[in-house]
Amino acid sequence: MTPGLGRSYASSAGALRCRRLRRTGGVPLAAWFVALLLVMSRAARAQEPAAPVPAPADSAVLLAEPDSSAAAADTLHGAEPATPETGAGTVAAPPPHPTPAAPAPPAAPTAAAPADAPAPPGAADPPAAPASLRELNAWIAYRTHAHLLALPDEARLFYRRGLMLHASGGDQAALHLVRGAIKLDPGFMAPRLTLVAWLAFHQPAEALDQLNDVIRLASDSFMIQIVMATNALYLFIQALVLALALISIVVLCLNHARLRHGWIERLSTFVTPATARWWSWAILLGPYLAGLGPALPTLAFLGLLLPTARLRERTLFVLLALTLAGVPFMTAALDRLSSPLHEDRAPFYGVPELQTEPYTPTLRAETEAAVAAHPDNPFLQFAAGWMAQRGGDAARAEAHYRHALSAWPRDDRTYNNLGNTLASQGRGDDALTAYHKAIELNPHNLAAHFNASQIYTLRYDFRSANDELAHAAAIDFEVVKDLQAERAESKWAGLLDQWIGPRTFWGALLQEPVHTTASGALPPLWRTRVECSGWRFSLLAFVVAAASVGLGLLFHRSIPVRDCVNCGRPVCRRCAQRRRELALCPECAAIWSRAESPEFGRVLLFQHRRRLLVRRDMVFRVAGTLVPGVGYLPHRRMLRPLLFLSAGCALASATLGVAAPFSYEPRFGVPGHDAPMLGLGLLWLAYYALSIPFFVAFERRASRAAQEPAVPIRRRVRATASVNPHPDSSLDAA
Length: 734
Prior knowledge:
Helix content is 60%, strand content 2%. By secondary structure, the chain is an all-alpha fold.
């Protein structure tokens, strides 16, 4: 049995990695630690066996009286708590506590405790928090003296002040405050990303170090992963839908004359041709002005054009129809990913957010109430054990962890935490059994190896302790070195707790059924859109698509509308004028009639076509340069416009601040917090640097094809192809 172990120290993925051991010379660390244990054992033999005293909440088991002044000086000179990265067995962050709890009364001595077991010193009065929120160094020193893992509220306050100072030009003071925010809460990711953006060109070494810490934090934090995945899915869906809608609208604008021509011919039997033209515009623009949204009317009009459309335009119609019909499935996937952010939804019930919540008796009571309502939920059982352990109730924590293990019999992290609760009760043998079980399930669990070495060390079994420490160092040497440095510099150490692994969260999330009727997870920007109104809109879109295709086939059979073989204007059998084997519009027919020979007529038609295309090509050339992807649409290209416009919509969403609606941390409302302008500027530069050369090369090929004169061929089919006014048709064939 091992007395003297109070509450275990819950090191976090944000609290143990960032510092490097900065020492040269001196006594080796292992020899120093052995000497410290010998001195403590002599002091323990000289006194009566003292009862174990639980440490304050969020503190570690004290092995020696901490040197407050030395720890404070070390913190103030820039030393940061280390953050280990242990692969599959990463040491996770417990919820930080802003103020230490009052020490619990001493427990009764353990009867089976050996006489030579080291006893912890008496619990000293906790230091008082600084009275002012303006002294950053005082708060850093207070966190060190009180042995707190983090001060999250104060860290966010100083971080916001740093952002405001940077916006007003105080760069050095802003850097000091942002770095201080990291020291106050090492698991706080936002200041690290801010330092990466600020120091990318001035101090690239520190920027890369911060970026490495961001990657390490994200690899072991389910909340960070789920927020990133949800925002990425939201951005992908939004960019894809916007790009498809924009391409469809541009294609409709390019073919609106062909669509309106059939309406004009039918309306001319009731009204004058001029009135029919006005009514055709009213029919075209009316659905958009009636509040039906841009997607549904565009889908209907593309369906009417389907009989005369080309393959790529028909593919666009099918994609738009499938996208509108599948909106409920997209929103259901978004709702499923955002369910961990809701405290009242199974299977998590807000458990992922407890990792970074400060401990309070009220929060623990709420967790216990949730466990009573859902006793078979392993996530709630683990969270209740986590809270009980932080509150000093090791026996209750043990019971909750054992309930969690009944559902997760192969979870090494729960076994590690169970071992810590057993060690806190002085049951060293049972604790080692739990650690060895965790190691058996996951040999790469660094925390279990390190905790076992701590127990062996307190039992003076230095050979076994060195073996376990060697295994931990083989998993991640830098982490073990940082842990030993933390223990040596602050003269306190403890056992490492672990939070629920991201893989466990993801496994439970993917097993949840998909609810396609849920709409609570929709961002506010989507909730007002008619396209996101649910299955009724999807059914309506399907009906509209089918009905528009049927009407288009019916209209085309009664009055087929084709393009003039020269200029591309729509003509029907009522208005088309035949010149030999060519079907021309009235204007092109008048030009042909002025020619003295068929060859000269073809030259005149070619010149007329070039004059018309020059104006259209100039407009789309400018638009294609400013809005990458639009310039391909007059040539009936669809894949490149979809890729470029989707990327442009994603960048525009990020620039306008609507790319990340989901967050588990509060927004600060300060420029430079959500998305660094420098990073967005580089992305926009790369976007245009990639799109413009592709578009220029494509335009050159299209221009060369347009300059080729038509070759007269006598046969009707070939002659029609030779005078085809659309030079890009040769590109389509290619």
